[in-house]
């Protein structure tokens, strides 16, 4: 038995795949999503064996979704656009279903799963994970009961919040379930600097630097002030020319 998730922003696309899946009792549908953000959430939670993935979706594309997965499942792309075919196989998709497609074409894609043993699929997934950009341009954060994407360039600073972190942009703050040290490892060190054991600042958001005893106070572009602890003061000093 293989666990399956369908990701497609069009209901008709999801319905067609569900109809064709009824002919394959070894494939068990465990969830579906109509956008990239929800797709990341349910794929990381339920860890399916196979995902039918649309590419062109509002917000995040199918390729964007792959970049945010903890583990890479087997992927069959299902899309109305043929221009992404080459990129699809670069990320080791098993097949590329071009809409509209027939049941026979769907069955052919499923037959390819039998030609890919776990020992073959795993190295392909590892190759993709290793090829991911080291530092993301966008991250997914919690906002109320939803998850939204946030460009890292829009972040002003990050503050430790117990075992979690709060991420601040110009007007709002968002909750991350990662600790501040985990976020520090994920973000580009050329852009983000730890200035306190509980604060990371986005360097382009700094407007002014003021002396504060043997350390500094940073005035951000939104006029908010954050203190640099003495143990991190040398990092700021190195930037002053």
Give the helix proportion (percent range).
25-40%
- Summed over residues and divided by their number, the pLDDT gives a mean of 86
What is the count of distinct domains?
Answer: 2
Strand content: 25-35%
Sequence stretches where pLDDT stays below 50 over 5 or more residues: 117-133
Which structural category do the helix and sheet elements fall into?
A: alpha/beta
Written account of the structure:
The longest helix has 14 residues, at 118-131. The protein has two domains: 2-131, 3-Layer(aba) Sandwich (Rossmann fold), CATH 3.40.50.2300; 138-239, OB fold (Dihydrolipoamide Acetyltransferase, E2P), CATH 2.40.50.1020. It has a five-stranded parallel sheet with strand order 2-1-3-4-5, with helices on both faces. A five-stranded antiparallel sheet has the order 10-9-8-12-11, with helices on both faces. It is elongated and about 75 Å long. With 241 residues, it is α/β, with parallel strands linked by helices. The termini are far apart. Helices cover 30% and strands 33% of the residues. The chain contains eight helices and 15 strands. Strand 14 and strand 15 (225-228) form a beta hairpin. The protein has helices at residues 11-21, 36-46, 62-67, 85-90, 103-113, 118-131, 180-186, 233-239, and strands at residues 2-7, 27-33, 50-53, 74-79, 95-98, 138-143, 146-151, 157-161, 164-168, 173-176, 192-196, 199-202, 206-212, 215-220, 225-228.
Q: What would the keywords be for this entry?
A:
single chain, 241 residues, alpha/beta, Rossmann fold, OB fold (Dihydrolipoamide Acetyltransferase, E2P), 2 domains, 5-stranded parallel β-sheet, 5-stranded antiparallel β-sheet, 8 helices, 15 strands, 30% helix, 33% strand, elongated
């Amino acid at each position: 038995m293989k666990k399956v998730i369908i990701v497609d922003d069009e209901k008709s696309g999801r319905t067609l795949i569900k109809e064709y899946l009824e002919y394959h009792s070894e494939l068990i549908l465990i969830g579906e999503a109509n956008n990239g953000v929800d797709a990341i959430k349910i794929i990381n939670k339920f860890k399916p064996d196979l995902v039918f993935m649309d590419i062109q979706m509002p917000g995040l594309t199918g390729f964007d979704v792959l970049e945010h997965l903890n583990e890479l499942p087997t992927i069959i792309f299902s899309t109305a656009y043929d221009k992404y075919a080459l990129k699809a196989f670069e990320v080791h998709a098993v097949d590329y279903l071009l809409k509209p497609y027939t049941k026979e074409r769907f069955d052919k894609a499923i037959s390819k799963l039998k030609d890919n043993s776990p020992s073959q699929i795993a190295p392909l997934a590892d190759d993709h994970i290793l090829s991911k950009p080291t530092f993301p341009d966008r991250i997914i954060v919690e906002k109320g009961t939803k998850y939204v994407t946030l460009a890292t360039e829009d972040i002003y600073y990050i503050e430790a919040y117990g075992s979690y972190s709060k991420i601040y942009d110009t007007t709002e703050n968002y909750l991350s379930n990662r600790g501040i040290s985990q976020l520090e490892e994920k973000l580009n060190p050329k852009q983000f600097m730890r200035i306190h054991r509980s604060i990371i600042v986005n360097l382009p958001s700094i407007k002014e630097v003021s002396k504060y005893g043997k350390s500094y106070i940073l005035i951000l572009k939104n006029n908010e002030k954050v203190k640099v602890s003495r143990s991190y003061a040398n990092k700021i000093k190195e930037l002053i020319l």
